[in-house]
Design goal:
alpha+beta; elongated
Amino acid sequence: MSELERLFIKFLHNNCSESEAGKVIPWLETTEGKIFAEAYISNALAGFDNSVISVEQQDVVASLEKIKNSSHGQLIETPVHEINKISGKWYLVAASFLGLLLAAGYFYFSQGTVKNIEFTALSNARKVLILPDSSEVVLYENSTLTYSDEWDDNKPRKVWLKGSGYFSVKHTINNSPFTVYTTDSLNIEVLGTKFEVAATGQKSRVILEEGKVNVYINKHSIKKTQVLQPGEMFDYNETLQQLTNEKVDAPLLTFRSKNEIVLNQTTFKQLAELIQNTYGFTIVVPEEELWQQQFSGTLPSAALQETLNSLSKLIDMKYTLKNKEIEFFKN
């Protein structure tokens, strides 16, 4: 996260000095500032549950939504009913957020709406994207990637990910950093590398296959920077407020980017856990000994059915698939 981005967050909570505020407000006129502010607002709004907050609090959220979605180059004035009656920490954050954006609305929108390029992968297919710097992204199902149409390889490269995807980032001559911002307040900064990101609500995960990445998380009471080496996985479980970092078989876990599962003395138990974590199916086997059986080679992974058919031939068993359960049985 850059100094200006940190100052922007500090500014939102009314903790900036006059000189710091003088740096932030002009920055909000730039394309970079507008995109970051928009992403930050979206993240903040995503954290509010309209089903459990009061009517007054919903008014504040509605106002933030209106500010975020506005495209008018003018100061925005949105009435908020009895905002001064809202109590607790929620009020302090929302009022501060809303007050700043109303005051800075001109700077945020005066240069016109930032044009973003957005790609979405539907539920039944992945999408392979080539970015302007020739970096490649495999966007997984039900995921969206966004970046500015004013891409400049001589400046920090930034993309926004909702969901999950695999990144193969090109190293530039001028060492321009590449940052992936997620909706889970998890940011990944690299120069040139291959890694997978999954940010899907309660769990966030980064798996590094090649190179080196810096992972930043700033959510609730957790603020942490983690440097990953090849073959390491960073996991954040929001429900448990738990961070883990461990050595993993990165090529195996990032199989969705390659359309094949690479097995290297992989046990059937490891393979079963991979299928369960990816597709949500539980695997049942007739013999406990099968769990420890090892395999090497490749399995096709373009679709679950294709993978199961190949696996069935590999272990010489048939299978049934019903109610999120895959049961293997002897011929």
